[in-house]
Amino acid sequence: MKILSALVFGAIFGLGIAISGMINPAKVLNFFDIAGSWDPSLAFVMAGALAVAMPGYALVLRRRARPLLAPTFSLPARKIIDRQLVGGAAVFGIGWGIAGFCPGGALPALALFDRDTVLFLAAMIAGMVAARQIMKARGTTPDRQEEPGSQRA
Predict the structure, then answer these.
(1) What is the pTM of this model?
(2) Tens-place pLDDT, residues 103-146
(3) 101: closest CA among 125, 130, 69, 76?
(4) Which of the chain's ends, N or C, has fewer CB atoms near its CB within 10 Å?
């Protein structure tokens, strides 16, 4: 049931991404081109997503002790804005601005069988593997990160 629900909700998400035009890198890049051929429609997509997600999360987390198909909610334990978080967000934003893709838009765009989409996803996966290896060499993992001020053994 858990896999089926992930498939259904993933398909709904992908359909929304496709309908909004976010699978088209040119549309995304035009959003970032404020001085040129700016297309503000992506701001409306983001605002619509936030308008649904923010009250939705608040409602679910307030009313339910646990999710329907998992033992606990998967929420971040760390609440600090640190160098690693800011750096990761910057790399994500730079990559999105250069390529016109984010992971949420690239996966549904695979259905278009475009070479650039495949190259982007291959590079993204390579970057994820490299980041995991670097974190492993440093003694941290995405699941178990050091708290600021803690000593490494």
Answers:
(1) 0.68
(2) 888 888 888 888 988 999 999 899 889 988 988 898 876 654 44
(3) 125
(4) C
